Amino acid sequence: MFRETNHYFWYISLFRFLTNCSAKAPLKAAFIRDNQLWMLDEGKERQLTTSMNVRTPKWSHDGRFIAYLNGDEQEEKTLLYVYDTKQEKSYRPYETPGTYSFQWSPTKPNCF
């Protein structure tokens, strides 16, 4: 009996803890609309690129950067770009002629 009561106490304590948790950071989302990169931040949508053909946006592990591919419709000239959410501008981290795939480093804000 004591063992069952003890288990119920822990379940109730865990349930109360989990239901009182909240997110510390506001929701941010990157998405593509009409081949352009957009960001949803604190309930507001913002267009981040113009005159591009954006694909595959990916957030950095720290949530500061969004990497994405920009290329022509035939995917013959695809370049890697990074949008810095603090400086509010995009840049090319590498001068490679073509990129078709990329991944963020799990510990540093670097793409490879």
Descriptive notes:
The chain is α+β, with helices and mostly antiparallel strands. The protein has one domain. Helices cover 16% and strands 35% of the residues. It has 1 helix and 7 strands. The strands form 2 sheets. Strands 4-5-6-7 form a 4-stranded antiparallel β-sheet, with no helix packed on it. Strands 1-2-3 form a 3-stranded antiparallel β-sheet, with no helix packed on it. A hairpin with a 5-residue loop joins β4 and β5. It comes from Tigheibacillus jepli. This is Dipeptidylpeptidase IV N-terminal domain-containing protein. InterPro entries: 6-blade_b-propeller_TolB-like (IPR011042).
Strand content: 25-35%
Mean of residue pLDDT? 78
Strand order of the largest sheet: 4-5-6-7
Gap between N and C termini: 58 Å
Helix share bin: 10-25%
- Ranges where pLDDT stays below 50 over 5 or more residues in a row are 1-15
Number of domains: 1
Using the alpha-carbon principal axes, give the shape: globular
Number of helices: 1
Protein name: Dipeptidylpeptidase IV N-terminal domain-containing protein
Organism: Tigheibacillus jepli
InterPro entries: 6-blade_b-propeller_TolB-like
SSE topology:
Blueprint: H1 2-19, E1 28-33, E2 36-41, E3 44-47, E4 54-59, E5 65-71, E6 78-84, E7 89-91
Antiparallel strand pairs: 1-2, 2-3, 4-5, 5-6, 6-7
